[in-house]
C-alpha cells in the first residue's frame, strides 16, 4: 500500500541521536499506568504549539475534554449522559465513552500537525499508559485518511516502568508490538530496556489518586487495599487494563502482608475516605463488596479474570475465576464467579455445555437461600443459560430461561435489577426476531415506550434504530425509513457522527436495490460522517455503497480510503481486493450487513 501523503510514525527503543528540527517535544512517560496520564501531557504540548487548533476542539467536545482535564470547562455535559460504558455483567469491554475521548485527542494531534507543520516527538513512550498510546494510534490512521503529511517520533519504547503489574508485563510488550503494526511502523530491536526511576506525579483525577494510594508505602495497609478495589472500578471505565491488573495484583499482595491481623473496619474506613459514592450496575463494586479477607480475595481475582477476558487470555481468566471459587466466601459471591466462568465459556470459547454446567453449579450454591441478592444472581445466571440455548438455536429453551430470570427480578427495583430487566426485554425481542416473528418482536420492543416517556435522545437513538430494522424486516418500509430518520436525528442532537454514519449506511443498504437514488443520498451522508470521525474503513464502505447506488463504477476514492485503514484487516482486505478489481458484486458482498442493534465494537480505538 502507498505510504505517500500520510503521517510517518517512527519508534526508537531508546534516546535518538538526532531529533527532528523545530519538533514539538513532550515527555509522555508516567510512573503509574493511569489512563490519560501521558495523553494529558501530549495534548498540553499540542495546545501550546497550536492553540488556535486545539482550543476550539475542546470547546466543541467539552464533555470529552473534561474527562481528560476534570473541571476545565464549566457547564459541560457529563459524558455518561451522552455515551455508553462497558458492562462487566455482560463481559462487554466496548466503551463508547472512551471512543469519544480518544477520538477527540487524536483529532487534536492531527490538527496540531496540520496547523503547526512541525513534527511531534513523544519521549518516554515506553512508560506511557496504553490508553494514551491508543490515541496516537488513532491519530496516525486519521492522518492517513486525510493524506496529512507529518511526522511522529516515539522514543524510549523499550524502557520499563517502575510500577507495573507482573501479570500484565508480557501482554504490554505484545500490545506495544500491535501498536507499531497499527501505526505502520517497525518495532525497535534491542529487547526490553532499563527500568525507569521516574518519580510519581500529583494525581489529576480519581484514578490517579487511587493508584497512587495503592503504591504508597507510607499509607495504612487497609487503606491501600480499599484504594486497590476503587482503582479496579475506575480502570474498568477507562479500559485501563494494565492499571486494573496492577491494582488487583498489589491488592492480593497487601492481603498476604496483612495476614490474620487484617482489620475490615479499617478497610471500610479507607473506602469512606476515598470513595465519592459512585455506584452503577455496569460494574457492581461498592462498599458492600468489601467483606472480610476471603471476600476481598474473590474481588481481586474477579478483577484479574475480567482483565484476562478483555485482553484475550481466556484460559487465564477461567483460572482466576476458579481461584476465587476456592475462597470461603458467601454463596452469592461464589455464584457470581460461576456466572463469569459461564459467560467466558459462552461468549469467548463457545463451550456451551460447559457453560451450562457452570450455571447449574452457581444455582446449586444458592439453593435454599431466599434473599433479594440471591434472586438477582439467579436471574443473571439464567440469562447466561438462555444465551447458551440461543447460540444452539434452541429458542424455546432460551425463552423459558429468560422467563425464569424475569420472574426472579420482577419484584426487585434496585438499579441492578432494573438493568437486567431492560436486558431481558431486549433479549425477548431478539429471540422473536431470530424466530422471524417480527410483529411479536416489535410489540415486545415497544414495551420500552410504555416504561418511560423521558428516556432522552441517547436511548431514543438506540430504540428507534432497532425498531426501524424490525419494521424493515416486517415489510413496513415507510415506517422503517421514518424510524431510521428519527434515530439519525437523535444521534445528530447528541453530536454523534459515529452512529449517524452507521444509521445512514444501514438505510443506504436497505434501499440500494429498490430506491438507488435515495440510497446514494444516505451513503453520501454516511461518508460525510465517516470523515468527521476520521475513520477510513467506514469512509471506504460508504463511498463504495454510494458508487454502487449511482452505478458510477468509480472506486478510486473508496479504494484509497480502504488502503488507509489498519483497524480490522480481516474486514478491510476483501473490500480492498474487490475495489481493486472493480468488481461491483464483490464490493457489494464486502460491505457490512445491516443489523438490528446499534451497538458496534469501537475497533478504531481498541487495541486489545
Q: For the report, how would you describe the main beta sheet?
A: 4 strands, parallel
Total DSSP helices:
27
Strand order of the largest sheet: 1-4-3-2
Provide mean pLDDT, rounded: 95
Report strand %: under 5%
Q: Percent of residues in helical segments?
A: 55-70%
Taking the alpha carbons of the first and last residues, their distance comes to 25 Å
Architecture overview:
This protein is an all-alpha fold. It is built from 27 helices and four strands. It has helices spanning 37-49, 51-60, 62-68, 96-116, 130-145, 169-182, 206-214, 221-237, 241-258, 264-274, 293-310, 314-325, 331-348, 352-365, 372-391, 395-409, 415-434, 438-445, 447-451, 457-473, 477-493, 497-511, 516-532, 536-550, 556-563, 569-581, 584-590, and strands at residues 7-11, 24-27, 120-123, 150-154. Strands 1-4-3-2 form a four-stranded parallel beta sheet, covered by helices on one side. Helix 5 packs parallel to helix 6. The mean pLDDT is 95.
Sum up the structure in keywords:
about 600 residues, 27 helices, single chain, globular, 4-stranded parallel sheet, mainly alpha, about 5% strand
What is this entry, summarized?
Helices cover 62% and strands 3% of the residues. It contains 27 helices and four strands. The mean pLDDT is 95.
Which helices and strands occur, and which strands form pairs?
Blueprint: E1 7-11, E2 24-27, H1 37-49, H2 51-60, H3 62-68, H4 96-116, E3 120-123, H5 130-145, E4 150-154, H6 169-182, H7 206-214, H8 221-237, H9 241-258, H10 264-274, H11 293-310, H12 314-325, H13 331-348, H14 352-365, H15 372-391, H16 395-409, H17 415-434, H18 438-445, H19 447-451, H20 457-473, H21 477-493, H22 497-511, H23 516-532, H24 536-550, H25 556-563, H26 569-581, H27 584-590
Helix pairs in contact: 1-2, 1-4, 1-5, 2-4, 3-4, 4-5, 5-6, 7-8, 8-9, 8-10, 9-11, 11-12, 11-13, 12-13, 13-14, 13-15, 14-15, 15-16, 15-17, 16-17, 17-18, 18-20, 20-21, 21-22, 22-23, 22-24, 23-24, 24-25, 24-27, 25-26, 26-27
Amino acid at each position: 500500500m502507498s505510504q505517500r501523503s500520510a503521517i510517518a510514525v517512527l519508534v526508537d527503543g531508546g534516546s535518538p541521536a538526532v531529533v527532528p528540527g523545530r519538533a514539538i517535544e513532550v515527555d509522555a512517560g508516567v510512573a503509574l499506568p493511569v489512563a490519560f496520564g501521558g495523553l494529558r501531557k501530549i495534548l498540553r504540548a499540542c495546545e501550546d504549539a497550536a492553540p488556535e487548533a486545539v482550543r476550539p476542539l475542546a470547546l466543541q467536545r467539552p464533555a470529552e475534554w473534561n474527562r481528560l482535564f476534570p473541571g476545565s470547562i464549566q457547564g459541560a455535559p457529563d459524558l455518561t449522559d451522552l455515551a455508553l460504558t462497558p458492562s462487566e455483567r455482560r463481559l462487554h469491554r466496548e466503551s463508547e465513552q472512551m471512543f469519544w475521548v480518544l477520538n477527540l485527542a487524536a483529532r487534536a494531534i492531527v490538527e496540531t500537525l496540520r496547523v503547526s507543520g512541525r513534527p511531534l516527538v513523544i519521549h518516554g513512550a515506553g512508560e506511557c499508559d496504553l490508553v494514551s498510546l491508543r490515541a496516537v494510534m488513532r491519530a496516525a490512521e486519521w492522518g492517513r485518511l486525510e493524506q496529512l503529511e507529518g511526522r511522529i517520533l516515539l522514543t524510549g519504547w523499550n524502557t520499563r516502568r517502575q510500577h507495573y503489574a507482573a501479570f500484565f508485563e508480557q501482554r504490554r510488550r505484545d500490545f506495544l508490538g500491535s501498536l507499531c503494526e497499527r501505526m505502520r511502523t517497525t518495532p525497535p530491536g534491542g529487547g526490553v530496556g532499563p527500568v525507569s526511576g521516574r518519580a510519581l506525579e500529583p494525581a489529576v483525577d480519581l484514578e490517579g489518586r487511587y493508584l497512587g494510594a495503592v503504591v504508597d508505602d507510607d499509607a495504612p495497609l487497609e487503606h491501600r487495599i480499599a484504594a486497590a478495589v476503587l482503582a479496579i472500578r475506575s480502570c474498568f471505565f477507562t479500559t485501563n487494563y494494565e492499571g486494573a491488573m496492577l491494582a488487583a495484583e498489589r491488592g492480593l499482595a497487601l492481603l498476604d502482608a496483612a495476614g490474620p491481623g487484617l482489620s475490615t473496619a479499617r478497610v471500610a474506613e479507607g473506602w469512606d475516605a476515598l470513595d465519592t459514592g459512585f455506584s452503577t450496575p455496569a460494574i457492581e463494586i461498592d462498599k458492600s463488596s468489601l467483606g472480610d479477607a476471603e471476600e476481598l480475595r474473590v474481588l481481586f481475582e474477579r478483577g484479574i479474570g475480567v482483565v484476562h477476558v478483555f485482553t484475550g487470555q481466556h484460559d487465564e481468566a477461567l483460572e482466576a475465576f476458579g481461584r476465587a471459587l476456592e475462597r470461603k466466601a458467601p454463596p452469592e459471591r461464589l455464584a457470581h464467579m460461576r456466572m463469569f466462568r459461564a459467560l467466558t465459556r459462552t461468549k469467548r470459547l463457545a463451550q456451551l455445555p460447559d457453560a451450562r454446567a457452570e450455571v447449574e453449579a452457581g444455582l446449586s450454591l444458592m439453593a435454599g437461600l431466599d434473599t433479594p441478592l440471591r434472586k438477582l444472581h439467579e436471574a443473571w445466571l439464567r440469562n447466561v443459560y438462555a444465551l447458551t440455548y440461543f447460540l444452539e438455536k434452541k429458542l424455546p429453551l432460551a425463552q423459558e430461561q429468560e422467563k425464569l430470570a424475569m420472574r426472579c427480578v420482577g419484584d426487585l427495583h434496585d438499579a441492578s435489577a432494573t438493568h437486567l430487566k431492560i436486558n431481558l426485554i431486549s433479549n425477548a425481542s431478539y429471540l422473536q426476531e431470530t424466530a422471524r416473528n417480527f410483529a411479536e418482536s416489535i410489540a415486545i420492543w415497544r414495551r420500552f415506550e410504555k416504561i418511560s416517556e423521558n428516556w432522552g435522545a441517547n436511548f431514543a437513538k438506540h430504540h428507534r434504530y432497532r425498531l426501524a430494522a424490525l419494521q424493515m424486516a416486517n415489510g413496513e418500509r415507510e415506517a422503517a425509513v421514518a424510524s431510521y430518520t428519527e434515530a439519525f436525528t437523535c444521534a445528530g442532537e447528541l453530536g454523534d457522527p459515529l452512529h449517524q454514519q452507521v444509521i445512514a449506511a444501514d438505510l443506504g443498504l436497505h434501499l440500494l436495490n429498490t430506491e438507488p437514488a435515495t440510497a446514494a443520498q444516505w451513503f453520501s451522508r454516511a461518508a460525510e460522517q465517516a470523515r468527521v470521525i476520521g475513520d477510513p474503513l467506514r469512509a471506504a464502505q460508504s463511498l463504495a455503497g454510494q458508487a454502487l447506488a449511482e452505478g458510477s463504477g468509480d472506486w478510486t476514492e473508496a479504494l484509497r480510503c480502504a488502503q488507509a485503514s489498519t483497524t480490522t484487516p480481516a474486514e478491510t482486505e476483501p473490500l480492498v481486493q474487490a475495489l481493486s478489481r472493480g468488481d461491483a458484486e464483490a464490493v457489494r458482498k464486502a460491505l457490512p450487513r445491516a443489523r438490528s442493534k446499534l451497538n458496534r465494537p469501537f475497533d478504531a480505538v481498541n487495541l486489545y
